[in-house]
Amino acid sequence: MTGIISDNVGRPSGLIKAASGGGGVWTKIKEITASSDSTISFVDGTSDVVLDSTYPIYVFKFNIHPSADARLQVNFRDGGSSYDATKTSTFWEASHAEDEGRAEVGYVTDYDLAQSTSVQALAYVSNGNEEVSAGTLHLFSPSSTTFVKHYICRVSCHHSMPGSIDTFIAGYCNVTAAIDGVQFSMSSGNIDAGTIKMYGIGDS
Amino acid sequence: MSGIIAQNSSRHTGLVKAASAAGTWNLIETQTASSDSTLDFTSGIDSTYAEYVFKWINIHPATDGAFFQINFRDGSSAYDATKTSTAFEAYHLESGDTALGYKGANDVAQGTGVQRISAQLGNDNDQDACGYLHLFNPSSTTFIKPYKSRTIHNAQEDYAEDHYIAGYCNVTAAIDGVQFSMSSGNIDAGTISLYGIS
């Protein structure tokens, strides 16, 4: 490594030599912009999506406006074409109404899962013209055929009460088959607008 | 962006245009456990970055019911920085029971002992823990050193456990080392990566 490249080692700007394997930086894999979509799917090997052993951690960052007041939800594909991986999870939230009529923290039994193949609720999303909800979902080691597949998520939601809800979801796909697809949808209506960005985080 | 640089966009090797400075994650070290009593990070934690992140993946304990734990080195060779922290958790049994609450057994009040960063782990062959810890400004010799952590894991009795920690090393000495361990047995398998955020 010589010249400009050598001189720039360790610097955050300019021409540099990329570290092997991405150097642990976040690598943007795919960005999908919603346009009245019933589902948005990220499938390994499809449309430039990589969801395999390339990265040990995958991160989805989303900013969603729905066509109806509804729940944003996700599911995982574990080998077949269906999004139906068995899951166990927790769901809790903090909420605060704009009129201060509600300010609380609590567990939400309606939206957790116990060995269920159903969708995993992530957020309540209201659909006023200016309203969106944004969050981050981490999926750990989806290609493992030894361990279950853990995921964690946090979403800042605009709820129709109206007010803010901060949701915290964590759980695992209780399968040893690899997870090779992730699908986002709404409990009713569609994903009217917004973006979902998929990243991989390297460790080598 | 043009020529070779443009052609190399999103690639991992060759000449590329560096990402913008703010928020860039830089891999410092990855350690893979193989029946290790501890995994120690003893270099690369200094004033280079204001925020460091540890991410652990597929941490599998040798002993069922062990706690995954951490401690910090503040100048000497011992991992014994004084800490005060909070701990809370949400859990959901595969059979149905749920709870959200403070976890008094896992917080620390001016203690030098380990900081638990999980509840009791399950060690079935397919059970593991994944999560992260942020350590802020460890090289400061003026301020205490805040940290925060979140871990999702299979608990001993087959349930999903979402475990949160936040606290601080109540020292003004720099933190220059971090040690991971289990409360009993060893770290049978898994990886821990250390990143600096520029």
CATH fold label of chain A: Jelly Rolls
- Give the overall pLDDT of chain B as a whole number: 91
**CATH top-level class of chain B:** Mainly Beta
Structural class of chain B: mainly beta
Which key features would you list for this structure?
heterodimer; A: about 200 residues; mainly beta; 9-stranded antiparallel beta sheet; 1 helix; about 55% strand; globular; disordered N terminus; B: about 200 residues; Jelly Rolls; 4-stranded antiparallel beta sheet
Can you summarize this structure?
The complex is a heterodimer of chains A (204) and B (198). By secondary structure, chain A is mainly beta.
What do these coordinates show?
The complex is a heterodimer of chains A (204) and B (198). In chain A, 2% of the residues lie in helices and 54% in strands. In chain A, strands 2, 4, 6, 7, 8, 10, 11, 12 and 14 form a nine-stranded antiparallel sheet that branches. A four-stranded antiparallel sheet of chain A has the order 3-13-5-9, with no helix packed on it. The longest helix of chain A is centred in the N-terminal third of the chain and has 5 residues, at 3-7. Chain A is mostly beta strands and 204 residues long. Chain A has one helix spanning 3-7; strands spanning 15-17, 26-37, 39-43, 57-66, 70-77, 87-97, 103-107, 113-116, 120-125, 133-140, 149-159, 163-173, 181-186, 191-201. Chain A has one helix and 14 strands; from the N terminus they run H-E-E-E-E-E-E-E-E-E-E-E-E-E-E. Chain A has one domain (24-201): Jelly Rolls. Chain B is an all-beta fold. Chain B has one domain (25-197): Jelly Rolls, CATH 2.60.120. Helices cover 3% and strands 55% of the residues of chain B. Chain B contains one helix and 14 strands. In chain B, strands 2, 4, 6, 7, 8, 10, 11, 12 and 14 form a nine-stranded antiparallel sheet that branches. In chain B, a hairpin with a 4-residue loop joins strand 11 and strand 12 (159-169). The longest helix of chain B has 5 residues, at 3-7. The two termini of chain B are 22 Å apart. The model of chain B is unreliable at 1-7 (pLDDT under 50). Classes of the chains: A mainly beta (204), B mainly beta (198). The interface between A and B is large, with 54 and 53 residues.
